[in-house]
Protein 1
Amino acid sequence: MEELLDAQHPEGGRPTPEPLDDARGEGAEDPKSHRSVPRSAAFRRFIAQGWGPRPAEDTAPSAAAPFAARRRAALSALFPGEVLVVPAGPLVRRSNDTDYRFRPHSAFAHLTGLGTDREADAVLVLHPRTPADGGDDAEGVDAAGGGHEAVLYLRPQGSRDSEEFYADARYGELWVGPRPGLAAQEAVTGVPCRDAAALADELGAWVAAPGTRGLRVVADADPAVTALVAPLRTAAAEEVAAADDELVTALSELRLVKDEWEVGELRRAVAATARGFEEVVRALPRAVGHPRGERVVEAAFDGTARVEGNGVGYETISAAGDHACTLHWIRNDGPVRAGDLLLLDAGVEADSLYTADVTRTLPVDGRFSEPQRRVYRAVLDAADAAFAVARPGVRFREVHEAAMRVIAERLAQWGVLPVDAAASLEPGGQYHRRWMAHGTSHHLGLDVHDCAQARREMYLDAELRPGMVFTIEPGLYVKAEDELAPPELRGIGVRIEDDVLVTEDGVENLSAALPREPDAVEAWMASLRG
Ligand code: GLY
Ligand code: MN
């Protein structure tokens, strides 16, 4: 400890200890806390002094910044004259006094380009441009010279003479490290940054400014911010809620077509995910025979995700044998047995927060049995049928319909449907969905189920456009106790999921590096196991 203090004082300016305070006075510990936090004035003076400058902050402009500026401009054009409030969200309590690692709201990440754990309690505001803003660099400038200015409100770094510095386990620098200063964050994002303490007053001024037509907030992002803006809103509660919903819808739809930077991040996430799948194949011999082999698999993937990116984009589904028939099996506490299939549905979330979402169903001992191949082939044919129709101009729902035709026909061949395939495919039938209850596709991006608040006409009923990224993930799940299914198929669950980019004239399978054909899967597994 002494050496540490010396290192902090190259000039040898070691602070002089002061006399202790009376333990019954201001130096007493908080009787309600079990943390031993020294609070004496002498200690506070002592810990506040003798520090050199903090290490230089990262001020390199983020590669995402120009793209984020364009997204803000597109949002601005949709809501002329309105104040738009997009919080990053607060820290979320995991239990008692410990929090989850922070992840910003995806709309905030999209509009600022900030990823990883940046920046709890921050709030992005787009306010209508006023004459005082001057200049011609407003976002979303319309023909009348309108548009918005963006401001990012941040909790500034607590000073070293504050109690926060050493005693606040949520925000204190000694506990969680330094926060970027306002100037540094401004340099990184290209957005003017201000102290969060000014948020309420400045919002009030913008709402009251002549020409402002109202305020909208992403209401579920941060309850404290939603409460803070409530007094600034005069409309009836239903109108306020509807206005906020429109903002959320617009933010979701703004993400339907990815820009070039986002596609790059998705490629990065998919590549890291492929490496995670390789680690899982290498870990399979360890998983077999372990009482919680599914956890061995999960740990192999999640370890890669954490090392290569921000973590997993959703809880890893590591499902062996009959567990594969539970669509979101995330308990992952079962064994992995030779002869069974392992369904692994997992995605690495890059530091930018863009996530992959890939599923492969692997024979645990490296070879598919004949019944496993039969189910696998049906699912692969359904996926290929979906790929075959996917291109610009085709409606999103048609991708699903192409996969469902194959699924229904195959189930009809197996004699498990009460009607023929055509009748099952009718809206009033849908019997085949007993064996595939989920959809074939969802958009993918900052959220694994991206753009989920988009209107139906912009999502399911919309035509595919270049730059959209979505999954193709048909499956068949025959539960062990399924008395309608041929006995040899019971306990087999298969899903094959790829991440797909719509190009100018077709689609690109972003996850094609992971084999899908059963022979190729076997050869790939054999090559990794040596
Ligand atoms: N991969 C999980 C899901 O799409 O729901
Ligand atoms: Mn998925």
Protein 2
Amino acid sequence: MASVSPSSQLNKAVRQHYMSLPQEGKCQVTYIWIDGTGEGLRNKTRTLNSEPKSVDDIPEWNFDGSSTYQAEGSNSDMYLIPVCMFRDPFTLDPNKLVLCEVLKYNRLPAETNHRASCKKAMDQVAEHKIWFGMEQEYTLFGTDGRPYSWPRNGYPEPQGQYYCSVGANNAYGRDIVECHYKACLYAGVKICGSNAEVMPSQWEFQVGPCEGINMGDHLWVARFLLHRVCEDFGVVATLDPKPVTGNWNGAGCHTNVSTKKMREEGGLQYIEQAIEKLGKKHAEHIRVYDPREGNDNMRRLTGLHETSSINDFSAGVANRGASIRVPRQVGNDKRGYFEDRRPAANCDPYVVTRGHCSHLSAGFR
Ligand code: ADP
Ligand code: MN
Ligand code: MN
Ligand code: MN
């Protein structure tokens, strides 16, 4: 029996009774924010007297930053600024989830609030209509710290049979994938697909295409929903880029990028231009493609297991061992998008997309 949390074993029929009680015209709004680690998500809930019609109807709030690695105890109040509203797939309509930016006591962005600068960068290049699609890989773990459903002693069969697989001997934890997918659709998160990954208990979902700042907003909320769904099932989703050492694939967050010009006829030349410029900033980008200045990604980008080496920049059509891959279809059509395969699974999508848009803007003005 795989290890699951005690909370997941609470009587769900009892829960259902309370969840079906009418809520007398009130609206529960759950505020979500990124904590001081730059990876962790926090949330808390309040009652509003009526259903907000848009994010503008949701008031600012605050929290104790000294408990989230975000402030000293002596000056610990942080502001929560609602930026993006979703439906709540757990407590259902009319209740909401709202993603927030965090501001410090002086109303400047908190250290791990990269949305503020990302938004500025996106506004500057708005005319290019930059689209992103991100492929979020993650790995399920039991509460015992072992990959979910792996044998207690030893290892599963070597990789080969798991990617896009079906069957109890191949696909571990599909309930989570399917429930998360539905939760995203209900919430209004722009999820566009999912698949089982190369390592057993490793999965991926894709979000996109999203224009500009929406990419970061939707991916962060998709991550929140993933952690929340996993909590219900009593397992843990980790975004560690190399959760199991050895001959097992790591986890990335491939980032697909296109501008209006790239998507139009003959757009391939603009893709090639962008790739050339990206090559010049390789080291700079690697430093911000995980929360630990490349140290997390160093375990993953080895040049093996469908990755490029962290030290080299490379690009190629249909090449999954390159830093940048141009999908075969894009090579054929001579227009479309390219894929940056370097971001780690635990990257901040605001930082990654900011890098791409500020970079592209220079060449297209
Ligand atoms: P892969 O073959 O790399 O596994 P996936 O199907 O997992 O590809 O993911 C493809 C991603 O590309 C999706 O997130 C999708 O939203 C994104 N995408 C598709 N078209 C575009 C485009 N024109 N610009 C940016 N992203 C795009
Ligand atoms: Mn994919
Ligand atoms: Mn993948
Ligand atoms: Mn990919």
